[in-house]
Specification:
The protein has 22 helices and 7 strands. The longest helix has 48 residues. Helix 6 packs antiparallel against helix 13 and helix 7 packs across helix 13. It has a 7-stranded mixed beta sheet with strand order 1-4-5-3-2-6-7. Helix 19 links the parallel strand 2 and strand 3. The protein is 65% helix and 7% strand. The protein is of the alpha/beta class. The relative contact order is 0.13.
Length: 623
Amino acid sequence: MTFSDWLLADIRLPKGIHHTEAEPKHSWWRVMCLTGVDYFSTLGYQPGIAFLAAGLLSPVATFILVLVTLFAALPVYRRVAEASPNGQGSIAMLEHLFPEWTGKTFVLVLLGFATTDFVITMTLSAADAAAHFTQNPFVPAGLKSQMGVTLALLAMLGAIFLKGFKEAINVAVILVGAYLALSLVITAVGLWQVLTHPEMIPNWQHALFAQHGNPLAMLGISLVLFPKLALGLSGFETGVAVMPLIKGEDLAARIRNTRKLLATAAAIMSVFLMATSLVTTLLIEPDKFKDGGEANGRALAYLAHKYLGNGFGSLYDVSTILILAFAGASAMAGLLNLIPRYLPRFGMAPEWARGARPLVLVFMAVAFAVTLLFRANVDAQGGAYATGVLVLITSAAIAVTIAAKGTPMRWAFAFVSLVFVYTTLLNIYQRPEGIKIASFFIGAMITTSLVSRAMRSTELRITDILLDEQAQAMLAEGGHEVLHLIARKPRPETEEDLDEAEERIRRQYNLKPDERMYFLEIERGDTSTFESNLRVAGDRVGKHYVLRASSPVVANAVAAFLIHLEEMTGKAPHAYFVWTKGNPVGNVFRFLFLGQGDVAPLAHEVIRRAVPDQARQPCIYVS
């Protein structure tokens, strides 16, 4: 087997939403653990990032994060779960709400942000896992390279997916259960330390008032700082993406169970966020959080080593490294399912993008580049991660608001949308590196998509041809003789108009009076659609036979219909066209983006590529 055969061995059509019922189903709490490897694992670095962003205000800013989680993000995604029960998520909602190219453009931009989210999940998780590894006291000094360990973990992740990886919910349940149990122990010990040292809270309050003056000032500063903590909202989009895996007697039961998943995960995370932000702020010296400090990117692990000993601390390090590594695997699996779900359907990905291994190599190269760019620094990647998370949540809030139009809840969701728009814009302003990274992904995705669409423009693109009863009867009257078709633009026409057109063709090509002629009219449909069925309807205008259809792209539809007629009759049909007026370059662009242009030569090229045997190729005549 050659390298090319191995690389492209698993190219296949991605599973569509109609195939999800064949996938095994699991209890909602078990599926919650699958989403939890991403969501709950942020506890490994969230407290440290919160302290670096807000300092002593970290618990106050985290409290705002909890309020947004429970009263903004959770209600939005409860609606998203209802609107996309097969796991399409908020991206599909916007695609359906906006027609044609507008919806496709939204999808491409959101895919850029989603790619940012997932790629940074991999690099951030690997960097934080490396921080837990290198800061462990039992690790030899020669292995304490943050960059080296991060790249090694990413390489291991890529190797797993190149060999073949299947999500294992059983593994997720064990990892999440162990990680949350150990985190609970550390948090409880931290709270006990605070309670047994009653001077800590008054000292903290005194320091807060000395720095910020009054509660209103603290609230205002916390609102400004809140976007830097927004990566704590990362689990919601993943929660609706895994809906097809959730067990339920029917669709309504699956939606109810998904809502249980979202609510339970949000509640667990909210409790941990508040408790861990408090204990880490009160018990860890500020210098420990800085770059190179013992608590940087591993605040809970630092407390575990400090209060429970290096043995328990090392156990927690192992647990954290494992769940962070699985979070990277979950992100990679999300990318491998997300990209093939949309881009090939739009005609905006090359054929090799259907295969997992080529995509793995692309995403691993990007992950390595991002890691080198950010120097495997956990704190530095927080802005890019938050940008991806916030844009997806904002898009979900806007989609839900539009979908709720005409209901009393629209104003509540509109307010939530404004909250997330404010948070996103402020995050971009404070940490522009996130939008820079996302812009790179968006630009690369749009450029690649347009090039791919142009290169695939002469594919057949018609998945099936369906003839109505009258069209079948009309074509059957022609028997198995050579069929002659006159291609015309759809327009109002009289029998006299068709008489004149038919007479011109017969005279020009010396056709006999008994040779049957059909008129073929293709109405241009949604040009943003890449593949579609062709439904052909028969009609009579006086003595003339007219076949009418609608298609996103006229030339490909004509070619597909002619090939279908050859298969029906066993004889190559003849099609007659007139030259399209206008600049040839302009016609090419009209074909690529508007589905029309110089139809005859384009239809001929589609036929040539689809039917290698020249003896079976339909004949194209142009005058």
